Amino acid sequence: MAPVATADSATGPSPSPLSAVPVHAAVDPPKPTPLTRFDYHASPYWNSQCPLIIDNGSSELRAGFCHADPSAAADVIARGPPYHYDNLVSKVRDRKKNLTLLLAGNDVYADGLTRGAIRSPFDNDVVCGWDAMETMLDYTFANLGIDTERVQHPICMTETLCNPAYSRSIMNELMFEAYDVPYVNYGLDCLFSAYQNGVGDDALVVSSGHNSTVVVPMVAAKGVLTNAKRLSWGGAQATDLLFRLTQLKYPGFPTRVTAWQARDMLEELCYVSTDYAADIRGMEMMPSAFGPTSSDPSASTSSWTAMEKADVVVQFPYLDAVPAQKSQEELDAQAERRKAAGRRLLEQTRKMRLEKMLQKENDLKYYTQLKEWKGKERKAEYMKRLESEGFSSEQELEATMKKMEAALKRSRAKELGEELEEEKQEEPTFPLVDVPDADLDEEGVKEKRRQRLMKAGHDARLRAKAEKAEEKRLRDLEIQRDEDERINDPKAWSARMRKDYDDAIDRIKERKRLKEMLSDRKSLAAQQRMKNITALASDSPGGSGANTPGGSARKRKRGGDEDTFGADDDDWAIYREIQNADDSEEEEDSFAQLAAIEQRLLQSDPTFTVEETYAARLARKNRLTLTFFNGPGGGDEAAIGSDLQAQAAAAAAGAGAGAGGKKGAQDKDAADKNESDPETIKRAHQLHLNVERIRVPEVLWQPGIAGVDQAGLDEICAHVLNGFEVDTRAKLMKNIFYTGRHTLYPNFGARLSSSIRATQPASLPIYVRPAKDARFDAWRGMARWCSTQNDAFRSTAISKRDYEEKGHDYFIEHPFSANWSA
Fold it and tell me: Which of 60, 103, 532, 744 could form an SS bridge with 90, CB 3.0 to 4.6 Å?
């Protein structure tokens, strides 16, 4: 399983769940260091025919001399290759110095400019960039100190499984035409690694490198390549997958994750799951609703879920945003400026209030003078004067003056700080309503109509007031009945309230489900609603509905144009607008009702805790996602609230504008503080790896996870083993050897053993062993073969004469060659 840090019980509980999570620092590409050039002329290799060993891997090139004498070569083999560096080149243009730089090996990581121009000689496992390959060989020979016109040493070099003849012919051309080597031999790196580890004559070799994974059976000390298999998945593809997973998981990550950092996370943090299906199910499971949560700092790591236990923090470099420190005098001056600004605002508000009051007094004086014209001129002239001022009757002028007098009284009382006694409003009278029209003149009939309308409005207000009073009485009665039931029969009251609470939650869920259905244009509910909207949005001139006379339905019956509303995506904007308008108020009412029931249960039912609230249920439901992103505890968003005041505030949101403004200011101050908080900045530069740690290596066994349409490693091994007789298969199963840098995950051997065990008969024993040094054993095996079996190395090598006479792609088979026919 994954390594997990545990809190020390002797030191007390940790202040945060994340303090118990392992932290891995993201590494940058290594700074290039100058290599010490080998003193070729002073070495015993000068002017000799000792072999030159080159492990030409797609990720790393390893090179060095080896003595032809086995006794002298033992020490060289034990030390490993003297030169090893990434098989990369970079060609950049320095515009300031007007120079073109050609860098190779680890020098390509010099700076951002050189890293941006990196390219590899390989396309997957096959050499295709021959200019880059020649640059790497030049760089290698220069490091080895070979400054002669020709390379006089025979070369033993690795190549990929079933290397294309064209690629080998170009490599031969490079060796014989450019470097004039005496002869060259090629072999498969995994077979040389098996030879170095002494696997014996019969073995199943599994090698997973930078670009591919191969399974090669060895029978009678020879690789049976006709039965070998290859999987197009290796460390490069796994690194790219992890890189893309982190990009999808954290799209707004403030720091760019480089491919080098992704490879480091892959090699250092990922591991192979011995039972992937069980581990994934364990990561999907969450603890019980009433158990301890990892967001509680006092919770032990033993109560963590599988995902929390697998979590690892990758910390990227960041710079602390140090806030500007202010002196006490500056803080006092700032506080005084705020107080002065508040006083100025209050003074401005009072001045505006006095100006409005003065304006109302002037208006009232003007209307009083206007009213005095009633006895100075004829009625017709007086009515024209009122109409010119915007009044239709004397009663409207009287009503306006009464309103202004009342407003002035309130303003004066507020200015003096006095309480204004409420004036008892007189009951309005309507004397002309019951008078016959025959007894009234024209003005009287008009006044009677006005009084009738006023009486109708007055009666409607009285009825509404009576209905509200009756509703309040019934509501008070229901509250009293509910309170009596709570006191006399608490169990029944609790059961009823919980049922109402569950029904409210079910209604919210049902509304959410319908909303999701309506968002799908092809659902039945959306299509039915679209038909209704089509009728409302019909452009027919005869009516707005489809069934109205002259509407769209009738036009279609007459053979008119077909209604195509909804065929254009822009028509659905009407649908979305209506949908949002209909659902918003109902959704608010549902949540308000739910909050009221929750508050009632929390206050009166001791068995109903905050853990059972709707917010807590959602928090537990979202905890899996939040743990996936934020690690143990899920961050601040995942914390299940335990403060009743916070819930009450949430239920009564928007209770007052002043309180809302104050809260908004507090939230802004808190946000500003968090932006400059060192801990917040540190958390923002962290990646949490949990599921990815087993998901990426699992692609070797389930390539479909990464979209690779090939068989997994277990199926490939089974297919290779089933191609032999039972006796040979038993020998191969007892000697399974795995090597390669992509096999260095923890638990790789155990998973390989169990997966092969599941495909073979139980009577056949199985034994799996790793390479002692998966990185350099291939080079050591080549050096060992060239020294201990130098005659075989020379007899199977290709000379320049063979190259010229038998073709550029000519090769001689040997037990370690990459092409072999049984």
Answer: 103
Please give the full DSSP string across 504-567, using - where no structure is assigned: HHHHHHHHHHHHHHHTSTTSHHHHHHHHHHHHHT---TT-SSTTSTTSHHHHHHTT-PPP-TTS
Residue 417, helix vs strand vs coil: coil
CB 722, CB 756: distance < 8 Å: no
Of 79, 49, 86, nearest in space to 64 by CA: 79
Distance CA 730, CA 762 (A): 11
Classified as helix, coil or strand, 642 is coil
For the chain, count helices (H), then strands (E). 28, 20
CATH number at residue 159: 3.30.420.40
Give dist(CA 123, CA 211) in Å, integer.
9
Distance CA 283, CA 21 (A): 16
Q: In this structure, are 347 and 392 located in the same domain? A: yes
The angle subtended at Cα 191 by Cα 45 and Cα 270, nearest 5°, is: 105
My answer on whether 392 and 466 are in the same domain is no
Predicted local confidence at residue 605, as pLDDT? 83
Domain that holds residue 514: 489-608
The secondary structure of 326-344, three-state, reads: CCHHHHHHHHHHHHHHHHH
Q: In sequence order, what are the residues at sequence separation of 6 or more whose Cβ sits closer than 8 angstroms to the Cβ of residue 3?
A: 22
Q: What is the 3-state secondary structure (H, E, C) of 108-150?
A: HHCCHHHHCCEECCEECCEECCHHHHHHHHHHHHHHCCCCCCC
CB atoms within 10 A of CB 558: 6
Tokens of 688: 């949490």
Q: What is the pLDDT of residue 293?
A: 53
Assess whether 432 and 536 both reside in one domain.
no
Asked whether the predicted pLDDT for residue 535 surpasses 80, the reply is no
pLDDT of 640 above 70: no
3-state secondary structure of 658: helix
Question: What is the Cα–Cα distance from 148 to 527, expressed in whole angstroms?
Answer: 82
Domain termination site, one of 608, 623, 649: 608
Nearest residue to 757 (alpha-carbon basis) of 717, 805, 796, 806 = 717
Element (H, E) at 668: helix 657-675
Instruction: Give the DSSP letter string of 7-28.
Output: --GGG---SSGGGGS-EEEPPP
Distance separating alpha carbons of residues 343 and 335, to the nearest angstrom? 13
Strand intervals (E) in 238-331: 312-315
Q: What is the largest CA-CA distance in the chain?
A: 142
Model confidence pLDDT, tens digit, residues 285-341: 765 443 445 555 545 677 788 888 899 999 998 887 655 677 888 888 888 999 999
Write the DSSP string, 458-497: HHHHHHHHHHHHHHHHHHHHHHHHHHHHHHH-HHHHHHHH
- Which among 632, 682, 615, 612 has a CA at the least distance from the CA of 295? 632
Report residue 579 as tokens.
């949908």
State mean pLDDT over 395-415: 82
776 contacts: CB under 8 Å, gap ≥ 6: 62, 80, 81, 84
- Output the pLDDT for position 543: 43
Positive or negative, the Cα torsion across 135, 136, 142, 147? negative
E-strand spans in 18-128? Answer: 23-25, 52-56, 60-65, 83-86, 89-94, 99-104, 118-119, 122-123, 126-127
The pLDDT assigned to 316 comes to 92
Residues 191 and 63 in one domain: yes
CB 814 within 8 A of CB 187: yes
